[in-house]
Design a protein that fits this description.
mainly alpha, 0% strand, globular
Length: 344
Amino acid sequence: MVDWNLVRTKIDLKFWFGIAISLFFMVLLFRKIDFNSLWSALVRVDYRYILLAVVCTFVSYFLRAIRWHYLLIPEKRIPLSSLYPATIIGYMANNLLPARLGEFVRAFVLAQQEGLQTPTVFASLVIDRLFDGFTVMLILLFTLFTLRLPQGMSEAETVLRTGGVVTFILYAGVVVFLFVLKHQTIRTLAWTGVLLKPFPQQLSNRIIPLLGSFIGGIRISSNGGHLAAILVSSIAVWLFCVIPVDMVLQGFGIHLPITASMFILVLLVFAVMVPASPGFIGTYHYACFRGLSAFGIPESTAVSIALVLHGTAFFPVIIAGFYYLWQSKMSFKGLRSAGSRVGN
């Protein structure tokens, strides 16, 4: 029996902790800003570029739906007319709900619409995130070895490169482990048990069944065309995440190499991993501000860019998410409750 009061308490604690983190970074961001300069920078923006950024953001969501289609092919051929709304609703929920419940909401919505088991759909999203992470690591490595940061940041550049390589190796190790676990499950679980022997038996008794259950729920098509579609769509997804950053910069009259936009995007990806309020308020803005400052962009302009960039990713998907929610005859309250149940 699940203690729902305990679940709610945990979510509330995460929510208020996230709020505190967001407030800290927002204070850090605005404490030295000249608000007149900030307003002037916002007024001068060419909003045609901002519109293009919004369009590209929705293209990236559509590409995510395409990749999800191929990830779920072993279970069922699901049309994009179901996958795309579920994707938008999930990202809307991520912007509004605590504890990143949007991933569970996304799985729940599609499972309800297509008559699938929610854990099965969620397992596909785990693989979805693995492809995201691997692609981001490739972008990080490419950026760090091609982008030349301004003078005076050579030490930071070296640290970033080293960290990027180490992170990529660790991530590749996780992917290889999961691949071997899927194809040699019994043998891999046995070796995992051996590696866990120095630790308390209770840890082994918990981890091994969990790994077995997790990998049993994951199925990936072995069709070469399907795998190629997953890889190509993964690259395309992140290409259309980089373009909005570049579009917003151009909207402010700032012309930097595309690798600078890639660098800022990677910082934003790491920023949204930090516990924060729904919508990643504060952490997102501060990471963007610091990334832009590295290229000598004035503080007020950098903050303005951070606000607009966040707005292009935040408000349009919320509006679209509520539209698809209404179209699906679901309520936001019911969605939050379902996400909490699935996530716990």
